[in-house]
Structures are given as structure tokens and as C-alpha cells.
Amino acid sequence: MQAKVPILKVEDLHVKVEEKEILRGVNLTINSGEIHALMGRNGSGKSTLSYTLMGHPRYHISKGQILFKGQNINELPTNERAKLGLALAFQYPMAIPGVSVVNFLKAALRAVRGKDVPIKEFRQELKDKMAELGVKDEFLSRYVNDGFSGGEKKRLEILQMLLLNPSLAVLDETDSGLDIDALKTVAHGVNTLRKPDTAILLITHYQRILDYVTPDFVHIFQDGQIVASGGKELAKELEAKGYDIVVKDLETAGAA
């Protein structure tokens, strides 16, 4: 059995946006081969964590550190984090009119690998990943997210992830706004990303995607912190009881 190694360690992370503190001491360790689900209400700070991990300049780390594969990446720009193997799938992917999907994916792969990818090699890799997701060839000639449905946008995010093959994939509410067929397709892509030497941080509101993607750990995010952690059963408990009751029950059990 391959030994698990820490891919991500977040230690006492405090983050401000325009002098307002959003993250208030986040601690999280993700090892290779693991899927972690981060669940919480709107406004709890989940997306702030994802953007901070990726190095968005609007999010200022006032305390704590992010260790990626043992390296402190607090000051690294986004492109350098991507080259190290960190990738983020957005909740609301932006449209890029005039840029075709195939050119966008080729440019992304070149940027992450730091060199040109031979056309034949690129097309074969892309074809294989498209087949895994059931994406049709005509998808490639369309402009990035221009006129895409919600499901198509999320498929493109997952296709990009499969092609880039990151060490850690951070998926920010990839399941939001999806019908059941699109949800199953995206979940299949997420499961395909899971490998012994990679890891996934799946940020979500709802338990429903966890019917198709089985997490190793579930964390409850509230007021800029992880307030509770458990196994996959914690997600079902949240769905059944709601955040307030589950957190209160856990606090009562901890105090007993």
C-alpha cells in the first residue's frame, strides 16, 4: 500500500478582504489519495478559502501559513501554484468570447507544464479525457463558456482538471445548479480525478453530490473556521438536521 503524504497543510490561517477578517484560524491537512468535503452555509468563508489557496491577490493572509507539498506558498503567485500542481474549479466560470475551448485548454496545459505540448500528444490526451466525460467533439470549437448551460460550464471545468492532472484539485461548489444527469457526469469526473498520489477538496452546500462521490472526511465550515469534522455520515446528518442542530449536538458532546 502506498504511504500517504501531506499534500496540503493549512495552519491557523487568517485572511482579510479589504480589512474585513473572513477566515479566522483554519486548520486543515489533506493527504495524498484523500477526498475532503467542506460543507457550510453561504457566507461562511468556503469560497474565500478556495481563492486564498489559489493565490487570489484580493485575499490577504494576516496570520498562518499554507504548505503545499511541504513548501510555504503564502507569497507565491497563482501561476506558480498551478505549476506546483494546485488547481481550482470555479463555482461561476467566466465566459471568454472569441477563445475556443481547444485553444484555451492547450494554453492552460502549456502554462502548467512550462513547455509546448506536441499537437499529436495534446489531441490524444484531450480525446481520452473527453471520452471519459462523454464530451462531444463539437464542444471544442465553441467559445469558452459563451452561451454554455450550467452543466456545460461544469463539464469544461472538470475536463480541464482531468487534462491538467493536478496534485490537489479544489472544486468550489462544482455541483451548484446542475440537473441530475449533469451532476452524475461531474461526479464521475471527480471520481476519475481521485488517484493514490493526488487529493481533492470538494466544497459544497449539499449532500447530494456525496451520493456519487464518497469523501474520506467531511468538515463543517462556519464563521471562517472548521468547527467539526467526521466521516461521510456527517454529511447525511447535516442534510437531515441542518447546520445549527448538528453543530450544537457536537458542541454538547464535546463538553460532556
Can you tell me about this structure?
The protein has helices spanning 46-54, 78-84, 101-113, 119-133, 150-164, 180-193, 233-241, 243-255; strands spanning 6-17, 20-31, 35-39, 60-68, 71-72, 86-89, 96-100, 143-144, 168-172, 199-204, 217-222, 225-230. Helix 4 (119-133) packs across helix 5 (150-164) and helix 7 (233-241) packs across helix 8. The chain is globular. The relative contact order is 0.18. The chain has a single domain, classed as P-loop containing nucleotide triphosphate hydrolases (Rossmann fold). It is built from eight helices and twelve strands. The longest helix has 15 residues, at 119-133. Strands 6-9-10-3-11-12 form a six-stranded mixed β-sheet, sandwiched between helices. It has 256 residues and is of the alpha/beta class. Strand 11 (217-222) and strand 12 form a beta hairpin.
Annotation keywords:
256 residues; alpha/beta; Rossmann fold; 6-stranded mixed beta sheet; 4-stranded antiparallel beta sheet; 37% helix; 29% strand; globular
Query: Average pLDDT value?
Result: 91
CATH class: Alpha Beta
SSE-based structural type = alpha/beta
Please give the share of residues in helix. 25-40%
Give the DSSP E fraction (strand runs of 2 or more residues).
Answer: 25-35%
- CATH topology annotation: Rossmann fold
Total strands: the figure is: 12
Number of domains: 1
Look at the structure and name the CATH superfamily: P-loop containing nucleotide triphosphate hydrolases
* Termini Cα gap: 38 Å
> Which radius of gyration do the C-alpha atoms yield?
18 Å
Q: How do the strands line up in the largest sheet? A: 6-9-10-3-11-12
Spatial shape: globular
Number of helices: 8
- The residue ranges in which pLDDT falls below 50 over 5 or more consecutive positions are none
Q: What is the second-level CATH architecture?
A: 3-Layer(aba) Sandwich
- Profile the largest sheet: 6 strands, mixed
